[in-house]
TrEMBL record:
Lineage: Bacteria, Pseudomonadati, Pseudomonadota, Betaproteobacteria, Burkholderiales
Name of the protein described by the UniProt record: MFS transporter
Record field: transmembrane: none
Domain of life: Bacteria
SUPFAM superfamilies: Periplasmic binding protein-like II
Protein family membership: Belongs to the UPF0065 (bug) family.
Species of provenance: Pseudorhodoferax aquiterrae
Pfam family of the protein (one): TctC
Length: 333
């Protein structure tokens, strides 16, 4: 009996410390955030992904009551940034601004990733769906319609180089899916980011790119590039005169929908209460009238989902792109 009493006395401080730590953790979670929140960006400043992140930076800061900082760790199709966040402390202060590529197709493209795009992250909230559009330099490809584009490429297998914003990026995967489905033989030329890739098209170094509508709009309005078809299932209001690929009726185009999404992820183990707070703040930010109007004018549409719904979106997206990668026979190391 005496031994039990002594053991209990020895255990009491440990128990008290554990209870104190638990109470402190609960207090910290309840009061989160108490310091700036950092979004880790895997793409260069000025890229399409960065433009979207900066558009929600201020409204998200106001909603959270703390500054939101964007930290650039670009390279390797976003994998450098993803690995950084996967290894970060799961306290809600270090987040990934990811895409359908970084948390989808990259899992199929890169066989030796040091993280799992699903198991090592908590999907917090999507931000929007992004429309890509087939953009050409008319001096390099003297065509005016999507059908003429397809006919020209098929008549000249291996001649035309298309640009992308990097191996495995959405701009790469959209073109890979198109080439696979329509039997087109083109050469992929990856660049370090959106600005470089579009510049290559404008200069005539490459013939074309499947780029985001928001990125190519200025060049389109200036008349330096031509838009042939959008990759989404439905027309894009910002360029309503441009048909969808699916609507052209060419063999292989039925049901074509190669849109991508952008969203926010936290490291695995992040407290659900923090995830819910973040989800609510992000959803409120993208639904602000001025933010929604800005995105829609750029050819994008906001996407609002719960963490559970976004988790399913990520899972389904990963499966879809795995099929595309297999069909196109693409593998990156």
């Amino acid at each position: 009996m005496l031994d039990l009493f002594k053991n209990a006395r020895r255990a009491a401080p440990v128990l008290a410390a554990c209870l104190a730590l638990g109470a402190a953790a609960a207090h910290a979670e309840a009061n989160w955030p108490t310091k700036p929140v950092t979004l880790i960006m895997g793409f260069p400043a000025g890229s399409g992904v960065d433009v979207v992140a900066r558009a929600i930076q201020d409204p998200l800061s106001k909603s959270l009551g703390q500054p939101v900082i964007i930290d650039y760790k670009s390279g390797a199709a976003g994998n450098i940034a993803s690995e950084y966040v996967a290894r970060a402390k799961a306290d809600g202060y270090t987040l990934s601004f990811g895409t359908a590529a970084t948390h989808g197709s990259n899992a199929a493209l890169y066989k030796k990733l040091p993280f799992d795009v699903e198991a090592d992250f908590v999907p917090v909230a999507p931000v929007l769906d992004v429309s890509n559009v087939l953009t050409i330099n008319p001096s390099v490809m003297p065509v005016k319609t999507f059908k003429e584009f397809v006919d020209l490429v098929k008549a000249n297998p291996g001649k035309y180089n298309y640009a992308s914003t990097g191996n495995g990026a959405g701009t790469h995967m959209a073109f890979a899916e198109l080439n696979s489905r329509l039997g087109l033989d083109m050469v992929h030329v990856p660049y370090k980011g959106g600005p470089e890739a579009l510049t290559a098209v404008v200069r005539g170094e490459t013939c074309c790119i499947m780029n985001q509508v928001q990125t190519v709009l200025p060049q389109y309005k200036a008349g330096t590039v031509r838009l042939l078809a959008v990759t989404t299932a439905k027309p894009v209001a910002a360029v309503s005169e441009v048909p969808t690929i699916a609507s052209t009726g060419l063999p292989g185009t039925k049901g074509f929908d190669s849109s991508i999404w952008f969203g926010v992820f936290a490291p695995k183990g992040t407290d659900p209460a923090i995830v819910d707070k973040l989800n609510a703040a992000i959803s409120a930010a993208v639904q602000q009238p001025e933010v929604r109007a800005r995105f829609e004018s750029q050819g994008n549409s906001i996407r609002v989902e719960t963490p559970a719904q976004f988790k399913q979106t990520v899972h389904d997206n990963r499966a879809k792109w795995a099929e595309v990668v297999k069909a196109a026979n693409i593998e990156l190391n």
